[in-house]
């Protein structure tokens, strides 16, 4: 995958850059591990990472070697933001999802330790109502024992059955161990129509760890 370069930030729809290259967007609850995952996927450190919820306060657009754009969206469900700010983020995200013609895939991050929460379902319902395809990515899979992870996967898959525009295939990944990263890269390159040969050589994919659930954020 190409290394990212930041080229635009938008705090309101009027600031969206012109629609040119295909885009893949990442969104999820605050502290779901979105920024860390984007960095690992793209072999970069350009996306700011923090344990503090609500760090991403605008939609950030990154270019990947002039092939496509990676879009980092504000986390939803940030309880400690002011009401006015939450409404502003909500409007910004919904406008992007509904109006952006170059959006090829919306990846919704779900923490593997918790599964789909009520706020996730609300967000998925909104996306589904706008006839936009989305795919769930279960993050932090290394922090969940495999038997628990397998059961949680089945529960999430069942949750997705009610959404017409959900991709009925869940991606699983860990930014920490890099498990599932190449599968995510293949998914991205497929939806933007890029050749899979852009993938760097790698050995066998790592599997999620069997360690007990951790409190790592």
TrEMBL record:
Entry keyword set: GTP-binding, Magnesium, Metal-binding, Nucleotide-binding
- Show where the EngB-type G domain sits: 20-194
Molecular-function GO term, any one: metal ion binding
Q: Which domain of life is it from?
A: Eukaryota
What InterPro entries is this protein classified in? G_ENGB_dom, GTP-bd, GTP-bd_ribosome_bio_YsxC, P-loop_NTPase, Small_GTP-bd
Sorted alphabetically, which PROSITE patterns does this protein's record hold? G_ENGB
Entry keyword Cell membrane: no
Q: Which cofactor does it need?
A: Mg(2+)
User: What family is this protein classified in?
Assistant: Belongs to the TRAFAC class TrmE-Era-EngA-EngB-Septin-like GTPase superfamily. EngB GTPase family.
Put simply, this protein is called Ribosome biogenesis GTP-binding protein YsxC
């Amino acid at each position: 995958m190409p290394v990212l370069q930041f080229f635009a930030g938008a705090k309101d729809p009027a600031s969206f850059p012109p629609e040119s290259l295909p885009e893949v967007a990442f969104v999820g609850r605050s502290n779901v591990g979105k920024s860390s995952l984007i960095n690992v996927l793209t072999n970069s450190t350009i996306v700011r990472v923090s344990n503090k919820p609500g760090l991403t306060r605008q939609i950030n657009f990154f270019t990947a070697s002039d092939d496509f754009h990676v879009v980092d969206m504000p986390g939803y469900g940030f309880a400690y933001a002011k009401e006015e700010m939450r409404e502003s983020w909500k409007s910004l995200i919904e406008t992007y999802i509904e109006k952006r013609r170059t959006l090829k895939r919306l990846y919704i991050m779900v923490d593997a330790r918790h599964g789909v929460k009520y706020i996730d379902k609300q967000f998925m319902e909104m996306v589904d109502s706008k006839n936009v395809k989305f795919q769930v990515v279960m993050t932090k899979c290394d922090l969940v024992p495999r038997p628990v992870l397998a059961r949680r996967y089945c529960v999430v898959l069942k949750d997705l059955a009610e959404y017409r525009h959900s991709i009925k295939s869940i991606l699983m990944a860990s930014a920490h161990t890099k498990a599932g990263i190449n599968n995510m890269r293949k998914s991205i390159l497929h939806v933007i129509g890029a050749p899979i040969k852009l993938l760097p050589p790698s050995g066998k994919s790592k599997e999620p760890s069997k360690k007990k659930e951790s409190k790592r954020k």
